Amino acid sequence: MDFGGLLLGFEFVLSFQGIFFVFLGVFIGTLIGMMPGLGPITAIAVMIPMTYGMDPVIAIVLMAGVYYGAVFGGSSASILLNAPGTSSTVVTAFDGYPMAQKGQAGKALAIAAIASFVGGTVAVILTMLFAPLMANVAVSFGPAEYFALMFMGLLLITTLSEGSTTKALISAVLGFMAVTIGTDAQTGTSRFTFGSMNLLDGIDFLVVALGLFALAEVCFLIINRNNKMQNTANLGSLRLNKKELKEMSGPMSRHSVLGFIIGVLPGAGATMASFMSYIMEKKISKNPEEFGKGSIKGLAAPETSNNAAATGSFVPLLSLGIPGSGTTAVMLAALLVLGVKPGPLLIEESPEIFWGVIASMYLGNIFLLLLNLPLIPYISKILQIPRQLLISLVVMFCLLGVYTVSFSTFDMLILLVFGILGYFMKLVNIPAAPFILAFILGGMLEQNLRQALTISNGSFDIFWNSPTAMALFAISLLSFIVPLLFRKKKMK
Amino acid sequence: MKFTLNKKLSTALSVISIAYLIMAYQLPEYTLVPVDSDVIPKILGYILLFLSIILFFLKDEEKKEASLPRKEIGMLLGTAVLILFYIFLLEIVGFIIMTTLFIFVSSRFYGYKKYITNGIVSIGFSVAMYLLFNELLLVRLPSGWLPL
After folding, report:
1. Pair A436, A175: CB distance under 8 Å
2. Which residue intervals define the domain DUF112 in the entry (chain A) (predicted)?
3. Structural domain boundaries of chain A?
4. B4 contacts on A by Cβ (under 8 Å)
5. A34 neighbors A382 (Cβ within 8 angstroms)
6. Which residues pair with A191 in a beta bridge?
7. Prediction ipTM score
8. Which of A382, A395, A408, B20 has an alpha carbon within 20 to 30 A of B27's alpha carbon?
């Protein structure tokens, strides 16, 4: 354990600037996450233009705060409105909303806040222990191993995502195709640019992220703009008694670890973690019939788990430089723009970034608790902002975000195209997360493959001779075949 | 045989993959690189074609096709038109005027009737953003017709 590093991180985070930006991140994240339909990817993507020119440590601390703030904000919307802001808080509504209907909204919010805090904090400790270990292993990785790793990440996100695997794969392939547009870095060939000068540099990831997520989400906001939100007016007491706290402790300890592990796995994120925790908690519960009717355990389990997973997903990002989810993919892209290259060398070369993020997570979790418990009644007022106004502002944020990055009206047109694409994808149930992950990993994947094959002079032996790469390919293959076999069994 | 959603999607995707493949085959070749710039695109094109064929034979998910009222399609198209206007006029007219107009007009378009609040929000937002970017983040937004 590198305590010197952690001290360095805290030194930064506990400065005025550090505290301010962690607070700001958590606050903005909570606000955006609370708005129905807007999720963490949108929250982070909207923040990106603001971080240009910032010190990279501050930028990532801010974005990390926005991320777990948004996850928590989503939970509040689930509890209060039965309208989950993101897929990772769908499960929260199962027991949170019934509690709110019983007049215990305050209690449910308190449980969610405490569970999130515990899940997040345990996961930070685990991240601190595991990320450096993983980085040590990855230092020896060459292009062949990296190719295998990214390949696995991409395949896992498609097999693990909800819904049809075929559609998730289609989404990933489309994302990969989108990134082949532009000048090929190795040969200088311009690919799929249709002779347009504007496309020579390829498409900026921010345009894709804002279009595919934010703008597409706005389309659904527009359609549902007149749905009246019945806000739970009476929150009730926020206080929990001893018995209730005791009831939470079991699920919290179990699912903070489970959530973390799922978060670290490439492809599986907060959504899957929350579902798995809920199912597991229900299975081991003595009275499973309470689940779905306002069970404290049923609320604490997914809430612990989704925050733990959100934190755990930073492990592969920081130690390998490989995002395991759509959200961390967007964050990776933002870091690359700031000149930070996350990967196994990050801890050595820029310890202040690595440890700054870790330290900010401790602080962020505390803020999340402090901010949310007393302020929840006020924060939930944001839900009363007229939808019509909100929609215009979100659209404006997307346009502004793209323009301030490239100063090109052409990019805004591309944004519109991706917004339309994202809307249609949602309409026909093609998930967008594999698209953005493939868009960001695709370029690196191709580069590593070609580097590997250039080193070996075109021979595939470079993969055969690397046990790590072969092991990773084996895992990818298994992740693909096992679910298929299970499905066959079920059919019989 | 009913032409289900999956079949429609599959058809559209196979058209895309074939078009993509045709373009991939037209990429110039270099002899000295072990993996040329056309290899990955060709692989991607074939995978997409393969996936769309699988999709053709898959049963549709239980979830019903989301049906959209005509009026809502109009709303979405209207939004797209407003965005297009914004994009084309932004650099000519300037950030503050266009942004104020955009927020005001689109909020009204979605049915927001409080003109005064709308006006305050749209002017406040565009001025605040202009100041934030120009003064704090040092990013120049187009000033356009306003003598700024």
Report:
1. yes
2. 19-437
3. 3-146+204-427
4. none
5. yes
6. A182
7. 0.91
8. A408
